[in-house]
Amino acid sequence: MKPSDRQVAEGLLFTDHYHLTSAQLYFRLGLHERPVQFDFFFRRYPNYGDHQAGFCVFAGVEWLLDWMEDAHAGDREIEYLRGQTTSAGDRLFDDDFLEWLRSDGNFSSISIEAVLEGRVVHANVPILVVRGPVAMAQILESPLLNHLNYQTLIATKAARIRGAGHDRPLLEFGLRRAPGRGASAATRAALIGGADFSSSEGISHLLGYPPKGTHGHSLVQLFIAMGEGELGAFRAFAEAYPDDCLLLVDTVDTLESGVPNAIRVFEELKRKGHRALGIRLDSGDLAYLAIQAAAMLDEAGFPDTVITLSSSLDELAIWQILTQIEEEAPRYGVDPHALINRLVYGVGTRLVTSGSDNLDGVYKSAAVEGEDGWQPLLKVSESPAKTLNPGNKRIWRVYDRRETATVDVLAAASENIESAPELELHHPVREDASRTLTRDEISSVEPLLVDTLKEGRRLLEPATIREMQERGRADLARLDPGVRRLVNPHVYHVSLTRELWELKQRLVGEMTSGG
Amino acid sequence: MKPSDRQVAEGLLFTDHYHLTSAQLYFRLGLHERPVQFDFFFRRYPNYGDHQAGFCVFAGVEWLLDWMEDAHAGDREIEYLRGQTTSAGDRLFDDDFLEWLRSDGNFSSISIEAVLEGRVVHANVPILVVRGPVAMAQILESPLLNHLNYQTLIATKAARIRGAGHDRPLLEFGLRRAPGRGASAATRAALIGGADFSSSEGISHLLGYPPKGTHGHSLVQLFIAMGEGELGAFRAFAEAYPDDCLLLVDTVDTLESGVPNAIRVFEELKRKGHRALGIRLDSGDLAYLAIQAAAMLDEAGFPDTVITLSSSLDELAIWQILTQIEEEAPRYGVDPHALINRLVYGVGTRLVTSGSDNLDGVYKSAAVEGEDGWQPLLKVSESPAKTLNPGNKRIWRVYDRRETATVDVLAAASENIESAPELELHHPVREDASRTLTRDEISSVEPLLVDTLKEGRRLLEPATIREMQERGRADLARLDPGVRRLVNPHVYHVSLTRELWELKQRLVGEMTSGG
After folding, report:
1. Cβ(A64)–Cβ(A151) under 8 Å?
2. pTM for the whole thing?
3. What are the tens digits of pLDDT across the range B342-381?
4. B39 found inside a domain
5. B163 and B279: one domain?
6. CB contact under 8 A, A243 and B88
7. Which of B:148-177 have CB within 8 Å of A?
């Protein structure tokens, strides 16, 4: 795509066709400014590599707000829509609708409440709520989902990978396998979820992180072709970057050539007063090679150099490598914990593509404002679990006496559960499942949604990526370890209050009897 | 991301950090203009949903060329690089390197040969070859892989899905689950691979396709809340779009409410002289509901309306639905073939995320130009299958007497296999596997790589998406049905000529003995 075409592809028209035809329909009926509420939530945790997550890390909001601020119907958009035809060959969009779109086709009338980016969030909880005129709230659906689904998916993956690596540094290396220019969103989300750095140059700059990297195999190959061998390549690299000397040791033979050559160069650096950074292993049995390389580096007097691992890593591969190191390292005289504490992980493909799944986040109309105030909306699905939770709601997180998050509660907007003497909680679907939490079982109750956008105006200072990382870490620390597990996690509880549950039952009854 | 920041994130700095540090290293050694060759190829077919493909559809080249034409080191790029520091706090990039980057940091010295976009391609065959000065050829690595890996992955998925649907229309609906602004690349690749239309508004326009869609559940919910019910919503939609009336029938109850209401509206349209388009099923047992809906539509006199299916579709889901229709439709008096021929598929998530895998395309240095001409380069991997095929090569596709593609052949650049009396073909890895094709077993031999870019200048008129689709269809028709299979396809043959095989053996011998 030519850069000049990006505005058309990624401005206001970065949405689905049916939103525009629906907006015109509302416009013709005079309904286009009717206030509605849409809830964003996801129905199930991503199933990374056949291992369903127990939590997500929310990301994407700030970039969504940037998009909303910029999107509008300019000349190119209007001209294009004017040229569209129906199957009968007539104009699809009328002039009066296009006039309205040119003047009002922006998001200055939209308000948003949202969970803060970086926080831990759960399935079936509305984590972002949109209110505004139906036509523009509808056009917002696809771009909103696009921003939130992908970044939340990748931030969650990053949090899982970092957890598996015992919080050792995690580098995002995914540009080459990332989905086109979605790469930038992937890097941002990976950093929010817990990656420490990225190899990607431009986006690192924009996000305020220095990019990181080593060198390529091709550098070594070129020096071999010039008759200077791997050692010549390592020396040239060390000379150019004496204080950032991380050497890729697997081009020829990791243990026979790469590590011994790296050690020679580290010794030369040391004599010149520089401290070598370490080595990178990018193929083969990473656990075995890391143990052998650590033994060689230790013996040569470089116990503090890092060993960076890369090559098809994800949370399960890292878990397996650490398990193998714990079992095998002592046999070779290497302290497994010292080795684990010098590891750095470079994760590319399986971080930016998430390994295998998507986030199924949806944007569902929950209420419409009529003459009598907000009126709840419902869609009764053929599957009870997909029947929506209606109306204007508040979302609360309840902490138990250990200060552990124990349940996210969906309540009616009018309820204040902070002052309730006890909480009667209902399973969102199963009629027979309810329980009561008494006040002394609860240490605190926190509203999750924060006013974020008020009629197009941002209410919050943009947070830094580091602040978002900190929110995630604080939330993860307050999550039951069973919910954080990589495989078969406990299911985190999400419940309705009695009031919301009864509203839902009443609406389902009305809808299935009437229609 | 703010639009003004896109140039920094996605211009020349849409690359990995180590390419820039390597480029500076080459610059300091005076090697930066040494001509090199890099080959792009993938090692294995994507493993979509645990079913490895037997072929790929190549996509992404034209957008890569657009990117290369635009990328350069401007003021913001230089300023940013000037601010970067080493771990010791010194400047990372020197002024002389930055001066060179400002003047020569573009792709006007790069040449490319490539397989035409849209064509069927195979594992371990170089399908794009880059030649040019090493510094810029190296900086190109990550953006090149980014463009080609993702679009080829998605184009291939689209070809599989369209094949599974008996070539009935395929609509790409993926914007909401697509990876950020990678959505645009996803739509383009889906169209190249065989999708007929996309729901995504702006990118459809740029690619010259009218966007397609129905309406949302929220439209029906809103009309229900206003007391006008599903029928009121359908009537309003039919009135607004009488010639494009495709109704989403699953908001209340598909067979009890949605289809009967749709039929009433279709009858009203018919009386006004319009032809209803059809219905869309978006939840539940799609095969069963399609059969029942078809029976109802047939009986009401609408046998030609389409039935659009959507909801977590991919090639295996479509295959299953068609199998179920063939088995069950006769039981309900519905002709299964007539039903299959009125189906349209809307595929979102599993098309634009590929369902589960990535394409592992790599960019490996194959040769360097020295005083004696092009010198082959090799990387000996610990796994024999990953050892590179060295040197400056030509790539041929050989068709057998049935005009079926039977093998892709990697040959030395100096060989002309068109005139060879017979072809001695070697397995790329296994020493004992070779065979000889005689002339009378061959109907034709085709060179696959086409001169595409000559020192930054495009040599080909950009093809339309439809031309690319045609290339893919023509290639698929000449592919053995066993290779096209969705599950457990035959492995397509890729071989080396004897000359290339002997070169590889010689280089491996030299490298492992010397180093």
Report:
1. no
2. 0.94
3. 999 999 988 888 666 678 888 888 888 888 888 888 776 6
4. no
5. yes
6. yes
7. 149-151, 173, 175-177
